[in-house]
Amino acid sequence: LRIGAEGATLMTTSDPQPDPETCAVRDAIIASLGDDLAALLWHGSRARGEANEESDHDMIVILRDGAAGAIERLAGVFESRQGWSAYVKTERELRQYPMIGRLQFHHGIAVLHGTFTPPRVTREGLIDDLRTIASTLAHEARYRIMHGASRTYRGLPDEYGRVRNTRWMYYQAKAAIMAMKARALLVSGEYPLTRAALRSRTTDPVELELIDAVDRWPERRPEFEADLLPLCRLIDAFATGLVVWLDATHT
């Protein structure tokens, strides 16, 4: 299992280039942070070349230790921009970062500015990551199955609850796909970067349905906003299956 190598490359088949909006944000962050910026990483579905019209723009910002007021300066960059998701860590925090999510620093990213050393990935860390994801997915899915996937929020329109919960469970479905990729790396030593590559490696109907839900989210979102329970049950079934697999192979 060859994991944890230093360095970062954009691992996509289509090798997409940053769109004008991403380039504008890159330049604005560099200008705003100056020497306080250690590295700027482009990642997510747009960097992998599989974005849809509802996909966020994703950026990882790595600050130098001791950068003062950097968060406030970043807030100014994103103040008038919608559809952005920025993840911020200092160099020191990156070294101490927990096991969860480390693979996003190794696969499917492009370094737009600076240099960085990805946090080390280990077999034990991947197993811990999968256990944490399984626990989180089960909680989020079961909470909504038990307490109502379209629960209302005091003082807000009912539609707000439906839309909010649907969007949140969409993120859980994407987390399930991250778990599938991490498990594939653990088993074979190869990371399926795209959803198409992941789909070719599974015949499990629950996993295929989750991949389809994320792949066709703009088309299927109204279906889930009308009735979110099928998606919640899929996510719960995947979490249950992941726990069974971990118990059988990594107790």
Describe the protein's architecture and organization.
The protein is an alpha+beta fold and 251 residues long. The protein has 10 helices and 4 strands; from the N terminus they run αβαβαβαβαααααα. The protein has a 4-stranded mixed beta sheet with strand order 3-2-1-4. Helix 3 links the parallel strand 2 (57-63) and strand 3 (84-90). The longest helix is centred in the last third of the chain and has 31 residues, at 158-188. The protein is globular.
Radius of gyration: 19 Å
Structural class: alpha+beta
Q: Note the run of SSEs as H and E.
A: HEHEHEHEHHHHHH
Mean pLDDT: 88
Q: Note the beta-strand portion.
A: 5-15%
Shape: globular
Number of strands: 4
- Major beta sheet summary: 4 strands, mixed
Helical element count?
A: 10
- Outline the low-pLDDT stretches: 1-14
Distance between the termini: 19 Å
Spatial ordering of strands, largest sheet: 3-2-1-4
- Estimate percent helicity: 40-55%
Task: List its traits.
251 residues; alpha+beta; 4-stranded mixed beta sheet; 54% helix; disordered N terminus
